[in-house]
């Protein structure tokens, strides 16, 4: 589950701000339970337990289902990520390019793979040849198991501009037929053919629907990913503000005509769980792949 620092995530924070509700979550992490079972375990009335369950359900943390004549509760979330606002560096000039996920210029993928647009799949699923279909530019989500997808962002810097920092942000997840919330995958980032580092995606999520994922996408396939921000400056590379690798701006030759960005599942990756890229109109963040350049 993805949260941010905004009012739309407030229900989840309020739901978690209770010792009783935290204990309910602990109980439900082991098995589904009815109101009566929880009331007995926690030594509280059924009415009080139901009030707490409703708050957890409103926040999207649990769900209800029928087991015979009993209404039981089940945990829907096994991980929560909180995205804080991005730090801004006003001392530098900057420009941003948003590239739709279907605007890749090179690829080498194996099934399961495919592309989805706002109304339907684009081409045939699990047929790599369709990755060159002209309609691919309308894709809002793409996925593959092994191989890579590569993009080229235009470089508007002049020889009088000094690149001070580069931010690359995108919503990513693993790739599993239908979905699997626990399905690690090692996704490696490259810029201008320089390997920046590898991030292990924890899963291919469908515990809840993506905030922007179109209604036609079935509930049991990947719904959203995790927003990742790769930052490169003169000191090194960072992922979500944490040290990532020793690669600096000097290693990526920032004065080529374009910035070539590749997302890959390497042949020797420990966790070969595929990759899904969510763009505008899909997932939890209504944005395409974003490249922001800070310069002086």
Automatic annotation (TrEMBL):
Superkingdom to which the source organism belongs: Bacteria
Gene3D superfamilies: Winged helix-like DNA-binding domain superfamily/Winged helix DNA-binding domain
Annotated source species: Schleiferilactobacillus harbinensis
Record key words, sorted: DNA-binding, Transcription, Transcription regulation
UniProt protein name: ArsR family transcriptional regulator
Annotated HTH arsR-type domain residues: 1-95
InterPro entries in the cross-refs: ArsR-like_HTH, HTH_ArsR_DNA-bd_dom, HTH_MetalResp_TranReg, WH-like_DNA-bd_sf, WH_DNA-bd_sf
Annotated SMART domains: HTH_ARSR
């Amino acid at each position: 589950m993805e949260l941010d620092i905004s009012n739309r995530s407030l229900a989840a924070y309020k739901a978690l701000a209770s010792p009783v509700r935290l204990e309910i979550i602990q109980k439900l992490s082991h098995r589904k339970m009815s109101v009566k079972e929880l009331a007995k375990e926690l030594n509280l009335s059924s009415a009080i337990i139901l009030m707490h369950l409703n708050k957890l359900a409103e926040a999207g943390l649990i769900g209800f289902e029928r087991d015979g004549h009993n209404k039981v509760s089940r945990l829907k979330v096994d991980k929560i990520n909180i995205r804080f606002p991005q730090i801004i560096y006003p001392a530098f000039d900057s420009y941003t390019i948003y590239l739709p996920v279907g605007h890749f210029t090179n690829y080498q993928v194996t099934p399961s793979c495919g592309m989805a647009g706002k109304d339907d799949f684009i081409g045939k699923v699990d047929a790599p040849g369709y990755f060159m279909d002209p309609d691919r530019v309308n894709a809002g989500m793409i996925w593959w198991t092994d191989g890579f997808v590569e993009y080229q962002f235009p470089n508007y810097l002049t020889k009088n501009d000094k690149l001070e920092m580069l931010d690359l942000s995108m919503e990513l997840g693993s790739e599993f037929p239908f979905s699997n919330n626990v399905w690690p995958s090692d996704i490696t980032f490259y810029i201008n053919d320089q390997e920046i580092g590898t991030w292990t995606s924890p899963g291919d999520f469908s515990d809840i629907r993506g905030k922007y994922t179109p209604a036609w996408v079935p509930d049991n396939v990947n719904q959203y990913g995790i927003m990742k921000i790769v930052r490169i400056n003169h000191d090194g590379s960072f992922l979500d503000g944490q040290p990532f690798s020793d690669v600096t701006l000097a290693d990526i030759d920032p004065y080529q005509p374009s910035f070539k960005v590749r997302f890959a599942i390497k042949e020797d990756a420990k966790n070969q769980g595929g990759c899904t890229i969510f763009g505008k109109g899909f997932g939890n963040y209504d944005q395409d792949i974003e490249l922001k350049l800070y310069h002086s």
